[in-house]
């Protein structure tokens, strides 16, 4: 992840992508506990090709969130994702440092 990715507003990028005719999903941090690396309200935008901008976890769960977002773009059904050390996905997605995060993923437009 580059510094540019952290400073560009993902919502503006999503608008640009939609203006180009791309299908876009947005993932938003809606709740955190413990040592979650991104605050509530952080965004990750994903297009149907798997391009993404922004961050919901500083790299810990982005891969899983992108995979889920691609499914949301396919079927249109939003979903709530939860990751943390207390569930079976903790070691797979890298939240072994502690904390939990809930991310809501939906299609834009």
UniProtKB/TrEMBL annotation:
<feature type="domain" description="XdhC- CoxI">
    <location>
        <begin position="17"/>
        <end position="84"/>
    </location>
</feature>
<dbReference type="InterPro" id="IPR003777">
    <property type="entry name" value="XdhC_CoxI"/>
</dbReference>
<protein>
    <submittedName>
        <fullName>XdhC/CoxI family protein</fullName>
    </submittedName>
</protein>
<dbReference type="Pfam" id="PF02625">
    <property type="entry name" value="XdhC_CoxI"/>
</dbReference>
<dbReference type="InterPro" id="IPR052698">
    <property type="entry name" value="MoCofactor_Util/Proc"/>
</dbReference>
């Amino acid at each position: 992840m580059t510094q540019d990715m952290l400073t560009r507003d993902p919502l503006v990028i999503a608008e640009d992508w939609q203006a180009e005719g791309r299908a876009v999903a947005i993932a938003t941090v809606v709740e955190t506990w413990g040592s979650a690396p991104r605050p509530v309200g952080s965004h990750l935008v994903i297009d149907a090709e798997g391009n993404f901008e922004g961050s919901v976890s500083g790299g810990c769960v982005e891969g899983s969130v992108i995979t889920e977002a691609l499914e949301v773009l396919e079927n249109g059904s939003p979903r709530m994702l939860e990751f943390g050390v207390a569930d079976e996905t903790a070691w797979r997605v890298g939240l072994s440092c502690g904390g939990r995060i809930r991310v809501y993923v939906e299609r834009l437009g």
